[in-house]
Design goal:
By secondary structure, the chain is an alpha/beta fold. The protein has eight helices and eleven strands.
């Protein structure tokens, strides 16, 4: 990752994929969709797009329903069914973000892995990249369209499909720590990790399938706190924030 943005440019990356958890769309400790929170996300995304960066956003749905948790509710709902319910929750978040962006006069397309033509475009790789080339933000929902797959893995897959230069994993903490920083005030933040370190130590970056996919395709990951105003722009400018996950330095 470059220490500073390239000379004459305010960005270090041309095309990025931003992964937002469902919790990003709600106030802390509250479920549902908060349009105040969505508007804050949209404002940051617009500022990034205004810099000429091609931005795709993969959204989660945990603020509405978590498929993995729902399937354990008395084992009355099969995991596959619960996962499809979770995918539909991501579409609700995607619609909210799309409208918030369009309210800011930012060209946006909502694309889903499950066809719902009256609501969104189907995700087609070449169509998505064409939207990005035309300066449109692409909001990608419904995961991969398959059960038993997390939105982390969907983000890793889409980042590689659209030839993103980095996967930005937005969280509510400042990066990857040795322990949960919200429970352990002595937890130590990692500035840089290799894929192998994440896998061997089972660090809470993304699920192991997503990390393996990024490692196989040399897709760097930046885990950072997007709740801090301007951090998405700092990440795209190549500033040293969060935790960078990539190949071993030689």
């Amino acid at each position: 990752m470059p220490d500073t943005a390239p000379p004459g440019s305010s960005t270090a990356y041309r095309r990025v994929l931003l992964k937002l958890s469902g919790e990003s769309f709600a106030r802390p400790g509250v479920t549902g969709v908060s349009m105040d929170e969505v508007s804050k996300i949209a404002a940051q995304c617009k500022r990034v797009a205004d810099r000429g960066v091609q931005l795709a956003v993969v959204v989660g749905g945990g603020n509405i329903i978590r498929g993995a948790h729902f399937s354990k509710a008395g084992e009355m709902v099969a995991q596959a069914t619960a996962d499809y319910m979770g995918m539909l929750a991501t579409v609700i978040n995607g619609l909210a973000l799309m409208d918030a962006l369009e309210h800011l006069k930012c060209p946006t397309r909502l694309m889903t892995a499950i066809r719902m033509d009256g609501v969104a475009e189907p995700f087609i790789r070449r169509r998505c990249t064409r939207h990005l080339e035309k300066g449109r933000i692409c909001v990608l929902a419904a995961g991969t369209g398959n059960p038993f797959v997390t939105t982390d893995t969907a983000a890793a897959l889409r980042a590689n499909e659209i030839d993103a230069e980095i996967l930005l994993k937005a969280t509510r903490v400042d990066g990857v720590f040795s322990d949960d920083p919200e429970k352990n005030p002595h937890a130590v933040k990692h500035d840089r990790l290799t894929y192998e370190q994440v896998l061997s130590n089972r660090l809470a970056v993304m699920d192991m399938t997503a990390i393996g996919m990024c490692m196989d395709n040399r897709m760097p990951i930046l885990v950072f706190n997007f709740k801090k105003e301007g951090n998405i722009e700092r990440a795209i400018a190549g500033e040293k924030i969060g935790t960078y996950v990539g190949e071993q330095r030689r």
